[in-house]
UniProtKB/TrEMBL annotation:
InterPro entries for this protein: AB_hydrolase_1, AB_hydrolase_fold, AB_hydrolase_sf
Hydrolase keyword on record: yes
PANTHER family: HYDROLASE, PUTATIVE (AFU_ORTHOLOGUE AFUA_2G14860)-RELATED (PTHR43798:SF33), MONOACYLGLYCEROL LIPASE (PTHR43798)
Keyword Hydrolase among UniProt keywords: yes
Protein name (Swiss-Prot/TrEMBL): Alpha/beta fold hydrolase
Gene3D superfamilies: alpha/beta hydrolase (3.40.50.1820)
GO molecular function terms listed in the Swiss-Prot or TrEMBL record: hydrolase activity
Annotated keywords: Hydrolase
Domain spans labelled AB hydrolase-1: 26-89
Amino acid sequence: MDTDQRTVQANGITLAYRVWGPQDAPAVLLLHARGADGADWSEIAPVLAAGPRRVYALDLRGHGRSDRPGDYAYETMRDDVHAFLAALADTLPDARRLTIDAGHLVHEVRPEEFLAAVEEFLSSADRTPS
């Protein structure tokens, strides 16, 4: 399994990320909470990768080994995630099928948009924005 930390240029900064699992497996993107980094997923990512899944754990801007440009608004981090997916478009050709554990990062900014993107993965009780 590939667990080396990698980097990509996205949204004008360098974002660091880790990868586990077979390259041809369905992708899962894991996002950490503020004050943490992608290493937080080091215990659960191998379990998900055994699914099999291709697991990506991103270090958000200002966290881990990603750049620290000083702007840490939710909207900017959301744009970073979109740019990250675009930068890896060859590796992740169907980003709309990607499962994202975004906590409140995306949900707080645009809850309806977030829920529409993950609706098929939610139970009916979870389909209402809080």
